[in-house]
Amino acid sequence: MSEEMPGGKRKRRPDSSDLPPAMSEMIFWLEENEVDLSNLSIRTSKECGGIGVFTKSTASVDAMVVRIPQRLVLSIEKVRTSLVGQAVLKTAARLGVQVSGEVLLKLFMIVGRSSSENFWNRYLTSIPPVFSSPLHWPEEVVERELGGTNLKGEVDVKRRDLREKYDALAPHLLQEFPELFEDVLSFDSFMWAHSAYSSRSFPPQLVEGRDNEAKDGGDTIGCMLPLLDILNHKYKTPITWVADRESVGMRVGAEVDAGCEIFNNYGPKGNEELLYSYGFCLVDNPADIVAVRYACVEQDVETANSKLELLQSQDVPVDIMSDNPCGLHCGPFLLTRDALPGLLLLTFRICLCGHLDPTFENTRAALRQLRSLLKDKLRAMGEAKKLRDLLPPGQKTAIERDSANYRKGQKRVLEASVQFVKDGLERLEVQHKEDLLKAKSLAH
C-alpha cells in the first residue's frame, strides 16, 4: 500500500504540545518535506475555534505568507497512477462503469488515512475524523433543525447520491482488493472522505501543469493542499493564490501584524453553503441567498411547449418535468436581501398569461402569485426547533446555534423579498390609477 514520494531529512520536532498529536505529526511531516514554518505559528484560533495559522512577524502587503512544494499537493493526476487509483480503475473497467475523479480521490484518501506507508498519511490523519456539517447529523436532527428549508432537501439528495456511488463500487473493491480496502472502506469512511474533500479542496488551477478548464465528466476536480487548508475563512480578506512548477502559496493583500492570524477568503458564501460544506454559519451574513423554483403545469403539451419556447427566448432556466410533458420546472432563482431577480417576475408573467406584455392585469397577477409562493416558503420553514436530548450538550449548542443562524438568514431574505413584492404592487396600483385619471382627462 506504499505510495513512495521523496521526502526531506528528519528535523527537530517543532513545539506543538498544545495541538492534537495528529496535527503535530502533520507539522513534522511538512518540515521534513522542506516547508518553511519558521515565521508561522499553528495553534488554537480564539476567533474561529479549532486550529489557525498565525504569523510570528509582521507580513507586509503582497508577502508570500504560506507556501508548500508541488510534490505535497494531492491531485487526481497522482491518484490515477497510485496503487489505489489503478485498483479502482481496473474494477470500474471490469464492471463497465465510469468512476469520477472525485470518487477516485476520496477512495485514495480513505486508504491513505489508514496506511502509515502512504506518503500523505500524516496529512490525512490530521484531518478531523468527525465533521459538523448536516450530512453527519442524525436524521432526526436534520428533520428537526432544517425541516422546511432548501438545505434539508440538499442533504437528503446528497446522502442518496453518496450511498449510490458507494454501493456501486465498494462491494467489488472489498472482494477484489482486500489487501487495500478490507477493514478500511465503509460508508462512514466514504462520508468522511466526501466531507474532507468538499470542505478542504482547492481549484485545480493550483496544480502546476493542469489545464484551467480540466474537468472530469463535466465536473471540475479539486486538489488537496496540506497546511493551506488549515487557514480559516474571513470574508473580504484580500489574498492572492500563486502557483508555479515548484510550489503553491498565498500572498496577503493587506498587512498582517505580528501574532495575528492569517486568513483565507472563500469568497461571498451564504450561510446555506457555509453550513452545508463547512459546518458553520456567520451571524447576519450579508451574502445569504434563498433559491426558489416555480412549477407550471398546463392542460396540454402544445401550451406547455409554447411557454417553454417563450421562457427559453428570455434565458429563463427551465426544464420539462420528467414525469409530465405538460409541466415545466422554472429556476432556480436566487433571492437576496437587496432585490428580486428580474427574471423571476418575467417568469411568472409568462407562466400565468402566456405572453411578455407587461399589462396591469398581467403584472398584478404575477406579483400576487409570487407573493403567495414566498409566503408559503416562509410558513414551511417555521421556527428553529429544539433538539431535546439527541446530542451531547456541546454539540447540541453548536448545531442549534448554526441552524438558528441559517434559518434567520433565510427568513430575512424571504421577508425582504415579500416586502419588495408588496412595494411593487403598491406602485403598480398607484401607477394604474394615475393612468386611468389621465385617460379620463384626455377623453374629456
Automatic annotation (TrEMBL):
Concerning Gene3D superfamilies, the annotation shows: set domain protein methyltransferase, domain 1
Q: Which organism is it from?
A: Cymbomonas tetramitiformis
Q: What is the protein name for this chain?
A: SET domain-containing protein
Lineage: superkingdom: Eukaryota
GO MF entries: protein-lysine N-methyltransferase activity
InterPro entries recorded for this chain? Answer: SET_dom_sf, SETD3_SETD6_MTase
